[in-house]
Specification:
Helices cover 31% and strands 29% of the residues. It is of the alpha+beta class and 303 residues long.
Length: 303
């Protein structure tokens, strides 16, 4: 019986060792590297500055806001919709303004009657054949009463005009021909004139795209004015986009897009350049990042 147990123990131990060796050998075996679909983008220039650029509309990305704080009753557009200038985008509730107009029009009617009454009284004194029949004081009082009635009439009319303008301003209109890039509102919500970094509607012209490029201050001296540039679509380096210079921002600003690595510095500053390209059939969208190469001065050259 003891011999059987010894044989069984030796068999199990041997099986365990063989299994362990097999597992270790399998893990040590090199796995084939994944096939590279697209090679990394390469600069077409001998001397260049590599940067990232963000696509924005040619009109800049316009944050559409509300003229006053009120409930949103209607939204007339959807994301991606192309519209012309002055197209209604959304509307705010105007019940209180409509009521105010009706009330003020009633006041206008009353002021009109009061003016007619004051005018009739003044004309009576003015047309008296015998001027000695009334005092100068009565004549002057009638004249000023008529003038005061005219002033009240003009003020009431101005109040109506102001309220009607507010009613017109309750409908947000497209500032130019463009595309609705983003909608961050719903009917029934309260709109405010500002929502921090989230606009009510993001809008822009997308026939021509702008690319906002950030150049680290260490490379700013290497920038060549109006230098040619080329952008590559991330994830597909075969799609290259020639860029045309538009303008450069003179003021150097703090870098906003930090990557969270140990090499990031909060005091890094960047110079912004803006290039453009015609949208055509490029599979890119506003807000997308591109890998950009700009022709630049060589490192050996002094500023």
């Amino acid at each position: 019986m003891a011999a059987i147990r010894s044989i069984l123990f030796i068999t199990l131990a041997t099986a365990g060792i063989v299994t362990a060796v097999f597992v270790i050998a399998s893990n040590a075996r090199e796995k084939p590297a994944a096939a590279v679909i697209f090679q990394p983008a390469r600069s077409p220039y001998a001397h260049f500055i590599a940067a990232q650029g963000m696509i924005e509309s040619a009109s800049k990305n316009i944050a559409i806001g509300a003229t006053f704080n009120e409930i949103i009753t209607d939204i007339y557009v959807v994301p991606g919709q192309a519209v012309t200038a002055k197209t209604p985008l959304f509307k705010l509730q105007t019940k209180h303004l409509d009521a105010q107009v009706n009330e003020t029009r009633q006041q206008l009617h009353y002021d009109q009657l009061d003016y007619e009454n004051k005018k009739t009284t003044f004309m009576f004194y003015k047309n008296l054949f015998n001027k000695a029949a009334t005092s100068k004081q009565a004549y002057s009082d009638a004249q000023y009463a008529m003038r005061l009635a005219i002033a009240r009439l003009k003020i009431t009319q101005a109040n109506i005009n102001r309220t009607e303008v507010d009613i017109q301003r309750s409908t947000a209109l497209a500032p130019c021909d463009g595309t609705v890039l983003q909608i961050n509102i719903n009917t029934g919500e309260s709109a405010t004139s500002g929502r921090g970094d989230m606009p009510l509607i993001l809008f822009g012209s997308t026939t021509i795209y702008h690319v906002r490029i950030e150049i680290d201050e260490e490379d700013a001296w290497r920038i060549i004015n109006k230098a040619p540039g080329t952008a590559f679509v991330r994830g597909n380096s075969t799609i290259s986009i020639p860029l045309e210079f538009v303008y450069a921002e003179p003021f150097v600003i703090p870098k906003k897009s930090l990557l969270g690595s140990t090499l990031d510095r909060v005091d890094t500053r960047v110079k912004q350049l803006v290039y453009r390209f015609t949208q055509k059939d490029y599979p890119v969208h506003p807000g997308e990042l591109l890998d950009v190469y700009l022709q630049a001065k060589p490192y050996q050259e002094q500023p």
